[in-house]
Amino acid sequence: MIPVVDLILVRHAQCQAQVDAGLLGDHDSELTEVGHRQAVALAVALRESRFGQPGHIWSSPLVRALDTAIPTAQALGLPIHVHPELREAQPSRGLTGRGRRELSRRHDQLSFDPAVGDDGWEHGDASYEAMTARADRILMSARQDLGPGARVVLFTHGAFGGFLISAAVGIPPATPSWFVLDNASVSVLRLPEPGRPGFGMFPPHRAQILVVNEVEHLPGDLRKPDPLD
What we know:
alpha/beta, Rossmann fold, seven-stranded mixed β-sheet, two-stranded antiparallel sheet
């Protein structure tokens, strides 16, 4: 059976708000020097991944995720689709992210979801249920837009990565689970063919979790657990 899609979830590399308490409230923080080095090491790992080379790259438009994705895009020769649904889980409303004009100056191979305007896009969620619904939409979009056998890297964030894993395996939003995802970590989910029956001891399932929070591709001095986890 060919899987409909493999999702390779990547949490952004280390950003300045994680190491500078004065920037803790910055919702669109830049990468640190360590973060840029993590992004380069990650690109090498994804190019040589044991799960197979990705054919698609999707990224949150928040720059800590986009700048983590750029070395991988360069290593694989792939464009980046900028998808605001991959933004961080943020319970505040009324925030805006950087628009197409500014983001396009960071990399010349970007395509944009229509929700990303020239001058910005809306950032925030009304509730945890809204975050779960957004994760469900990403999973549905990956199935419908990419097709059988596709492999996509999703450059996203620590909290929203957890929502994606929960949505993939069917953990209800009323009883959420927390998945620790370190900076520049890799988690891999395999979405089987819809409606696939169970067999033997294996029940019907929505997703297979192959890896969660893998950081072995990072040299020891670049393994930096998030102090907020």
